[in-house]
Design brief:
The protein is of the alpha+beta class. It has 9 helices and 22 strands. α5 packs antiparallel against α8. Residues 236-460 form the Flagellar hook-associated protein 2 C-terminal domain.
Length: 481
């Protein structure tokens, strides 16, 4: 049977409050542990943001280290509304003409027209619709050559309408799209290959359950229905262009990949047979400008982050979260040191030589006039960023920053990894210390409750004895009056 305890009733002592106050004293170290845990968590978050900033700087330096960035080219088309061109970095300067001979086509098919009854679609009849993928030969014969894939067999039930057949085709074929056309007097099943090019052809045939394919009854009506016959309304065809007026090039789509080395040409929706475009491939410094802008932005973002985290405000006497932190300060010093170091093998030794200089606070700014003059010397400009002299103090700026950032970020040996592991260990130790202290407090609380409960019983017993003695003395005194 459960025991109901109410310490202090017997003695009049407020044992619960006494024990609570004593336990509160024992709990004071918990507050310190909680503060430490919160500080560690905040530092983990701060280092995480710094790591992201260093990673962004690494990516930006990597683009300036890449040869592709400095080999940028631009492809232009004299008839850009009809023909577009693209070129990959490193493609040599070139000019050629493209004349459109044919646009890529998908094969389309329309079945014989089937009448509605009272405006309602009617079942067409049971059987099997077979669709064989393949390729048609040239006009005028258009001889069909089946492809290697097995024909798609569509089972048509007796109560299926054209809409049901279209739904079945769409559900089972990834090569064709089916729909139903309402032509005013009836319905037609329309098919279209999803791909373009001569190899995207197909041929239809039916097997009618009545066994007669020429009676204009049942499923065979898809092919022939009175005076109406199913037919190919457009044969699949390759796109064709003439390069420099005499060299024919074909493609299954309207895009000609690597029509010349590194250059692709696309025929747009506005292209017409006979359109002519002059394609020009020229060097383009836009990727370089974009990469330099990305680097400056990444550097400034990281520098601002470090400045905020390590600052000390003399007016408020408040420091940033990482104020005095040797790791954060070390990153700051290293970044400044790389900017101050020189590069050999280029007419430009420092970023300041091409118009990129540090401002008050450490952020970089770009002098566009000086920058534009420097980028006009592409080889020296490139070497300033990416030359590799196998010496960390004389390498290109991007090489030095990339090496520095990647060293910090190394998965097993990087300083970020070391710092993260140290903070996680501190957090784990804090958790263990908290658990041990809570266990200790629970034991102390239990001991105090037992001791004060025993004291309560003793005081209650003494009080009862005192009351008894007082009562006896009073009785004795009354008897002897």
């Amino acid at each position: 049977m459960a025991t109901i305890s109410s310490p202090g009733i017997g003695s009049g002592l407020n044992i619960k409050d006494i024990v609570s106050q004593l336990v509160a004293i024992e709990k004071q170290p918990l507050t310190q542990l909680q503060v430490r845990a919160a500080t560690v968590q905040t530092k983990i978050s701060a280092y995480g943001e710094l790591k992201a900033g260093v990673s962004a700087l690494s990516d930006a330096a990597g683009k300036l280290r890449s040869l592709t960035t400095f080999n940028g080219v631009a492809a232009t088309s004299s008839k850009a509304t009809a023909i577009s061109a693209t070129a990959i970095g490193g493609t040599g300067a070139n000019n050629f003409s493209v004349t459109v001979s044919a646009l890529a086509k998908a094969q389309t098919y329309a079945s014989a027209s089937l009448a509605k009854v009272n405006g309602e679609s009617q079942p067409i009849g049971a059987g099997t619709l077979s669709i064989q993928l393949g390729q048609y030969g040239a006009a005028p014969g258009y001889v069909f050559a089946p492809g290697s894939a097995a024909a798609l067999e569509i089972t048509v039930d007796a109560d299926d309408t054209l809409a049901d057949i279209a739904s079945k085709i769409n559900g089972e074929s990834s090569d064709l799209a089916a729909t139903v056309l309402n032509n005013g007097s009836g319905e037609q099943l329309l098919l279209r290959s999803k791909a373009t090019g001569e190899a995207a052809g197909y041929q239809l045939s039916v097997t009618d359950t009545d066994g007669n394919l020429g009676d204009s009854l049942g499923l065979s009506r898809l092919m022939t229905n009175g005076t109406s016959s199913g037919s190919i309304t457009q044969y699949a065809g390759d796109a064709k262009v003439m390069v420099n007026g005499s060299i024919e090039v074909t493609s299954a789509t309207n895009t000609f990949k690597d029509i010349v080395s590194g250059v692709s040409v696309s025929l747009l929706d506005g292209a017409l047979v006979g359109d002519v475009s002059e394609i020009a491939i020229k060097p383009d410094d836009a990727p370089i400008r974009s990469a330099v802008e990305g680097f400056v932005n990444a550097y400034n973002a990281l520098n601002s982050m470090l400045a905020e985290a390590t600052k000390y405000d003399a007016a408020t006497k408040q420091g940033g979260l990482l104020q005095g932190d040797s790791f954060a300060i070390g990153i700051q010093n290293a970044m400044r040191g790389i900017l101050q170091s020189t590069t050999t093998g280029s007419a430009f030794a420092r970023l300041s030589d091409i118009g990129i200089s540090q401002q008050l606070g450490g952020n970089l700014s770009v002098d566009s006039t000086k920058f534009n003059a420097a980028i006009a010397k592409p080889e020296d400009f490139k070497n300033l960023f990416r030359i590799d002299n196998t010496g960390t103090t004389t390498d290109g700026v991007a090489v030095k920053f990339k090496t520095f950032a990647d060293g910090l970020l190394a998965a097993s040996t990087g300083l970020f990894k070391t710092k993260e592991d140290s903070l996680k260990r501190a957090l784990d130790q804090n958790t263990k210390d908290t658990e041990r202290l809570n266990a200790k407090i629970a034991r102390i609380e239990a001991q105090l409750n037992r001791r004060y409960s025993a004291l309560d019983a003793q005081v209650a017993g003494l009080t009862a004895l005192n009351n008894y003695v007082s009562q006896q003395v009073t009785t004795w005194n009354n008897a002897n009056k």
